[in-house]
Amino acid sequence: MRLDHHRVVITAAGRDFGRTLALRLAELGAEVFLSARTLAAAERVRDEISDRGRVHAFACDLTDAASIRDFASRVASHTDRVDVLINNGARYLEGPALQSASDADVVDTVASGATGTILVTKSFLPLLLNSEKPDVITMVSACGTAGHQRSDAHDAFYAAKSAQAGFTEILSRRLRPQGVRVISLYPPDFDNADPLAEEWETAPRGAKDALTAQSLVECILFAVTQPRDCFIKSFHFEQV
Predict the structure, then answer these.
(1) Which of 86, 104, 106, 108 is 20 to 30 A from 203, alpha carbon to alpha carbon?
(2) How confident is the model over 159-189, as pLDDT tens digits?
(3) Beta strand pairing status for 84-87 and 7-10?
(4) Whole-prediction pTM value?
(5) Please, what are the domains in the chain?
(6) Nearest to 190 by CA among 240, 137, 154, 121
């Protein structure tokens, strides 16, 4: 599954699964436009990738509409199209007690996950519509699934993920006639091995093991490399 002719935007790629996506997709030939809240964080990942593929680094604060618009504008100065937008950014907030988080933490969590996803998609839609193979991938979470109760995430995180789920559901219907596939992933907690470490190849992936970042990357690759008549709307995962 090569991505040699794909131009991919990834939000929140300065660490964790966003970094994993950036590293792996660049290795598979994609030209990657990655963002992180700070430019320094984005550039650290860019420097890890620079000898492995084509990559550009940008700052983007998903809680700031002006920052999101600036990110999209800067990407547009490098390319006339985006083939894949990966909405990976969303702040995690832990704590099952509503009172355990400050008001500022609640605002930041909901803004980055819900409002940020909407505004990033809105800002990049013109570039996506210039592509012959536009896909919007959103990393939601099992917390965005109705009735899910197994996470110790804060209520605000549940709210942000539920908002992402509702947004992608209606967006899928409304963008499909324009040829845009909207694909959502709903993973539970998963193991994210370092793609540059030996453990990436040796991580256990049996039926009784936790879901891995490797499998999530492979789901994304499978979805975006299908013919355009194959529209995989979402991936849901059983939790071990």
Answers:
(1) 86
(2) 999 999 999 999 999 999 999 999 999 999 9
(3) parallel
(4) 0.97
(5) 7-236 (3.40.50.720)
(6) 240
Give the Å distances, CA to CA, from 164 to 114, 208, 221. Answer: 6, 29, 21
Residue for token pair 């699934």 = 145
**For residue 239, pLDDT beyond 90:** no
Cβ neighbors of 228 (< 8 A, separation 6 or more) are 133, 179, 181
Token readout for 185 is 């992933």
Q: DSSP per residue over 155-202, as a string?
A: HHHHHHHHHHHHHHHHHHHHHGGGT-EEEEEE--S-B---TTSTHHHH
Q: Which residue has the tokens 């370092």?
A: 194
Residues 6+ positions from 164 with CB-CB distance below 8 Å? 87, 90, 113, 114, 117, 138, 140, 144, 184
